[in-house]
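lol so apparently i was supposed to do this last week
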Amino acid sequence: TVGDADAGKKVYNKCRACHAVGEGAKNKVGPELNGIIGEKPGSIEDYKYSAGFEEWAADKTAWNEALMTEWLADPRAVVKGTKMAFPGLKKPEDLTNVIAYLASFDAE
Ligand code: HEM
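anyway here it is w/ protoporphyrin IX containing FE bound
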């Protein structure tokens, strides 16, 4: 599926209190997300993940659309003990669109 990055930018308003993207993005409450699609989960430099997330991420090789969709739909069901305090995105189009938006930022 191909999401709409412009529509996804609006969805990302639900994320930006905790996550930065774009030029000069720094870790906040959550890790910065430049280049996150294709990256190994749990690998952002200088970010302290929860033990639950680290355990879950250990055998994951890369964030792809399928894994990201699962995670963002219900983070606390996917990763027991995650500290990402977010209930999840329930609309399928919000999921595909926000993932398209994330995919528009390369790793810096
Ligand atoms: C982790 C995306 C909303 C706080 C993550 C990760 C992704 C992500 C992809 C894993 C990153 C990695 O593997 O390095 C998003 C998106 C959001 C969102 C797209 C909106 C739809 C939020 C909100 C908060 C938050 C609102 C704060 C209230 C965190 C934290 C982690 C995290 C603390 C680390 C999880 C842990 O160590 O257990 N997020 N997030 N996120 N996010 Fe979010």
